[in-house]
Amino acid sequence: MSDHPESNPAQRQVDLSNEPIHWDLPKAQSYGDYLDLNRILNAQHPRSAEHDEMLFIIVHQTSELWMKLALHELQVTIDALRRDELLRAFTTLTRIGHIQAQLTQVWDVLATLTPFDYSRFRNTLGRSSGFQSWQYRLLEFTIGNKNRAMIAVHRGHPEVYEQLAEALEAPSLYDECLQLLSRRGFGIADEVLVRDYAEPYAPHKSVAAAWLAVYHSTKAHWDLYELAERLMELDHRFQDWRFSHMKTVERIIGNKPGTGGTSGVNYLAKALELRFFPELWQVRTSL
């Protein structure tokens, strides 16, 4: 075996002599400045001395950041649908799908938390709960699952409450898709197109017929068919996210009530029955 330095990987270093690196950072915007890392990395404030509370906090903080990005992309998607720019909508829906994958995978990290370790700091949460995540509620409203009762818990935060109330009353992503179908000549009933958007969407036979026509003539309506499939991907991934959440909670706390006052796993199981785009699920049986 040679003892020459070049043959020993542990002694190798990257040669920086010819790299025009900016070392004098105080005179320029740095990576940390641009990302505001000082605030982000100092936003974790455990309420206990337990090691695993940091894991719990960071998992939920990063999830909120991913949700913020998903909401950002959803607004662009809705704007694109209103302008009939479906290629743009496809791009953002694809990105949202990858964001959803990150949100689902983060539960694998949290699942490393054992019941005993969580019990050591759970009381420090008080009544705080993921049920109170206003961004999650905004995601559901924006995509199409409206529920007026869900915003009551945010009355103590007027800005958040106002934003949720606005989203509740606005057309959802699915509503914009149905408006698009109507503009394309499909016979969507007036009671679907002009309605109280704050009320839960109810499946309608005219919508089912329109989507079925798209699926029966995919070549003639290829962009609408592509839109339908991307909506299904969005709905499917959302259910995966809910399921992973439920199973992670069950793994850690069993059937204990949630800190926010829900029944815990039993409440999360109910959410698995929710579907954003009911007619797109129905059409699979009709084909």
Task: Describe the structure in your own words.
- This protein is an all-alpha fold.
- 58% of the residues lie in helices and 0% in strands.
- It has 13 helices and no strands.
- The protein has helices spanning 31-35, 37-41, 53-82, 86-110, 115-119, 134-143, 158-169, 173-183, 190-193, 205-216, 222-253, 265-271, 278-286.
- Helix 3 (53-82) runs antiparallel to helix 4 (86-110), helix 6 runs parallel beside helix 7 and helix 10 (205-216) packs across helix 13.
- The radius of gyration is 24 Å and the shape is globular.
- It starts with 30 loop residues before the first helix and ends with a helix.
- The relative contact order is 0.11.
Short description:
The protein is mostly helical and 287 residues long. It has helices spanning 31-35, 37-41, 53-82, 86-110, 115-119, 134-143, 158-169, 173-183, 190-193, 205-216, 222-253, 265-271, 278-286.
Q: What is the total tally of β strands? A: 0
Per the principal axes of the C-alpha atoms, what is the gross shape? globular
Question: Termini distance?
Answer: 69 Å
- How many helices does DSSP assign? 13
Query: Which class of secondary structure composition applies to the elements?
Result: mainly alpha
Largest sheet: none
Proportion of β residues? Answer: under 5%
Rg calc? 24 Å
Low-confidence region ranges: none
Elements, N to C (H/E): HHHHHHHHHHHHH
State the helicity in percent bands: 55-70%
- Kindly report the average pLDDT value: 93
